[in-house]
């Protein structure tokens, strides 16, 4: 394999000149540049990204830890992050934790050993990154996405899930529904807890009772929504509307209602959360709370790059505002 020295020898220039041509970081005459480029082509020389990163102490790589699932929200969020990284000249290395703490910490160690310039973390509070590992790499900037931070100075970007849960429930109330249930997400996730709390606040402010069995804790997955809705349908006093903790569970809930011979919204209104792409193609199209996934991904990358350039900045906590998207399921 050809080296930079081989290129310099063939072109009759110094290795530093070859470096300037390849990195385009200093003026080199057109004649010299052409000699170097011809030598590179002749020798089929490929610059070493590792050597460059060691020299510059930068890899232009961002690592991301995520607990992925069948929930389309995560793939849509990652798509926004990857696009933002590409537009800013960075590569994204994605590691899926599968909700396993050991796997998460091993992936975290691997990313840090590979000298990523920064980290994006989207996990759960019950499985948090090991402080010991983080402390071994104290200079790595980190941004938490959509969940509460562990003890540290990481920047945090979250959806205002409390407001979103309240908005969703209030929309049902404003449309005349009184027996409103909530199928919430797993309570080890801050957004799920806050969406449930928003539901409770809206019900209390409207003077509406939450009947026994009207709160069910789901898992943010399709099957979880199906199972929870099936459970609601066994109640003696069935709800006339349901706030789903996310759109993935709403998909499962639709299927349970279909199997029971019930129609949305004639027999039961359904409102979701996240506004995944699938929501607009459901039958009927799902009314939901829009969580700005592209904005969340873009903002996370921008905050991280800003932090990498100015590591001494005070910790930032940014809250994104959800929006109601009215379709036909209410």
Automatic annotation (TrEMBL):
UniProt entry keywords in alphabetical sequence: DNA-binding, Repressor, Transcription, Transcription regulation
Positions of the HTH lacI-type domain: 2-56
InterPro entries in the cross-refs: HTH_LacI, LacI/GalR-like_sensor, Lambda_DNA-bd_dom_sf, Peripla_BP_I, PurR_sensor_dom
Top-rank taxon, per record: Bacteria
SMART domains listed in its UniProt record: HTH_LACI (SM00354)
Single Gene Ontology MF annotation: transcription cis-regulatory region binding
Classification via Pfam families: LacI (PF00356), Peripla_BP_3 (PF13377)
PROSITE patterns: HTH_LACI_1 (PS00356), HTH_LACI_2 (PS50932)
Protein name, UniProt field: Ribose operon repressor
Origin species: Cedecea lapagei
């Amino acid at each position: 394999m050809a080296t930079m020295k081989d290129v310099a020898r063939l072109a009759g220039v110094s290795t530093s000149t070859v470096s300037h041509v390849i990195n385009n970081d200093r003026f080199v005459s057109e004649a010299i540049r052409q000699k170097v480029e011809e030598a590179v082509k002749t020798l089929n020389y490929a610059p070493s990204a590792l050597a460059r990163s060691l020299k510059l102490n930068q890899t232009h790589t961002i690592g991301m830890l995520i607990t992925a699932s069948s929930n389309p929200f995560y793939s849509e969020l990652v798509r926004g992050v990857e696009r933002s990284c590409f537009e800013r000249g960075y590569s994204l290395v994605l590691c899926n934790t599968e909700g396993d703490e050991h796997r998460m910490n091993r992936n975290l160690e691997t990313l840090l050993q590979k000298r990523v310039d920064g980290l994006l973390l989207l996990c759960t509070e019950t499985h948090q990154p090991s402080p010991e590992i983080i402390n071994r790499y104290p200079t790595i900037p980190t941004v938490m996405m959509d969940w509460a931070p562990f003890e540290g100075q990481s920047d945090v970007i979250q959806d205002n899930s409390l407001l979103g849960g309240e908005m969703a429930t209030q929309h049902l109330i404003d449309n005349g529904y009184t027996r409103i249930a909530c199928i919430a997400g797993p309570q080890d996730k801050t957004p799920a807890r806050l969406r449930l709390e928003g539901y409770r606040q809206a019900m209390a402010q409207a003077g509406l009772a939450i009947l026994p069995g009207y709160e069910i804790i789901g898992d943010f997955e399709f099957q979880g929504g199906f199972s929870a809705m099936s459970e609601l349908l066994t109640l003696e006093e069935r709800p006339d509307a349901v706030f789903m903790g996310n759109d993935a569970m709403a998909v499962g809930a639709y299927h349970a209602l279909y199997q029971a011979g019930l129609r949305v919204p004639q027999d039961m209104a359904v409102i979701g959360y996240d506004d995944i792409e699938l929501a607009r193609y459901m039958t009927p199209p799902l009314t939901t709370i829009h969580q700005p996934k592209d904005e969340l991904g873009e903002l996370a990358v921008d905050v991280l790059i800003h932090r990498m350039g100015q590591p001494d900045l005070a910790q930032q906590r940014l809250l994104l505002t959800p929006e109601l998207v009215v379709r036909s399921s209410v």
